[in-house]
């Protein structure tokens, strides 16, 4: 869960039908008007205060409660970042929960995203948070930019270790603060089994798999033992470092992970690995860049498994791959065989889709 710090406390006005149903509560007591919670839909500067989150684990909720009851104490000198004035210290609070490989008990990572590096200001919070036995990692990502991203330019370990572990499809994964990993682990197990089924591997270890937007290597590594070799690409350096560690951790030697921006590929892309028999593509919400679409249409892999968390950009990219892009003089060469939706985020409209494309 990623929570944001705000300079004003917005609350939902449910008892009145108004176009703008959020109202700001102005307080005279210093710091009492601050907020820590989730953004109001469609607003980058309205943070709805959250005292308890039913989506996260119980130990993670204890962390949120401790931070909430502590951080607004004026004597600590902690201030939320003001997205309009670009001043203030605390930007985001990220809480991730994994599992200890040996015991199966929860492992919690707490990541403070701040505008500068002042660990002494976080000291009182750290002292209280570390009283929770499940907390094994406290990180500090320093993000000096004016943007709203939670990824820092610098990262510091303030307590414990820099990673937590999780188990998926019989493998163990190390996850760092900035690495992508599916949030709903139980349903991710379902998702990755379906991806494996959709890949249609022969099982004789003869096929090359290209894993695009590979994150910490979860998809590629779950398929590696039935493939000849897996090549994974990801833009986040920390995720690639985790993917390499995860391959070693699970005794997988036929996987190569490369750090690179798939939105900025050039004519040399694809020269460093054999033609893939199966391509797995799991982009983030904006989908795939036209440069990557063009490359896929040129390389003509027999099968593409497209995993998407955004049906709109998924439909767009599938249209390009199947029917081409007329104004770019690109001809489509794939046929959409199946689409399987997976409910990764219950009680929300968000789903993942697994789409199988085969060369015409």
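Sequence proposed for the structure above (360 residues):
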């Amino acid at each position: 869960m990623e929570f944001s710090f705000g300079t004003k406390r917005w609350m939902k006005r449910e008892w009145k039908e108004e176009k703008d149903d959020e109202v700001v509560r102005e307080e005279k007591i210093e710091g009492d008007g601050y907020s820590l919670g989730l953004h109001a839909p469609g607003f980058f500067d309205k943070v709805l205060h959250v005292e308890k989150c039913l989506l996260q684990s119980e130990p993670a909720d204890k962390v949120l409660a401790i931070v909430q009851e502590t951080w607004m104490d004026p004597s600590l000198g902690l201030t939320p970042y003001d997205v309009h004035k670009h001043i203030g210290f605390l930007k985001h609070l990220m809480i991730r929960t994994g599992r200890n490989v040996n015991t199966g008990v929860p492992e919690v990572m707490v990541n403070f995203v701040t505008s500068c590096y002042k660990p002494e200001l976080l000291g009182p919070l750290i002292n209280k948070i570390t009283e929770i036995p499940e907390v094994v990692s406290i990180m500090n990502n320093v993000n000096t930019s004016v943007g709203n991203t939670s990824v820092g330019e610098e990262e510091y370990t303030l307590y414990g270790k820099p990673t937590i572990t999780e188990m998926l499809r019989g493998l163990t994964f190390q996850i760092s603060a900035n690495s992508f990993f599916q949030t709903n682990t139980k349903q991710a197990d379902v998702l990755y089994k379906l991806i494996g089924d959709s890949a249609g591997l022969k099982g004789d270890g003869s096929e090359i798999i290209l894993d695009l937007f590979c994150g910490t290597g979860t998809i590629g590594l779950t398929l590696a033992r039935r493939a000849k070799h897996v090549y994974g690409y990801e833009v986040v350096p920390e995720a690639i470092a985790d993917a390499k560690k995860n391959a070693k951790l699970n005794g997988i030697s036929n996987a190569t992970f490369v750090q690179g921006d798939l939105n900025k590929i050039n004519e040399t892309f694809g020269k460093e690995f054999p033609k893939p028999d199966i391509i797995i593509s799991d982009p983030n919400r904006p989908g795939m860049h036209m440069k990557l679409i063009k490359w896929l249409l040129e390389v003509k892999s027999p099968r593409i498994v497209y995993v998407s968390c955004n049906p709109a950009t998924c439909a767009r990219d599938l249209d390009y791959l199947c029917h081409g892009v007329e104004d770019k003089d690109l001809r489509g060469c794939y046929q959409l065989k199946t689409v399987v939706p997976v409910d990764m985020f219950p009680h929300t409209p968000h789903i993942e889709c697994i789409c199988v494309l085969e060369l015409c």
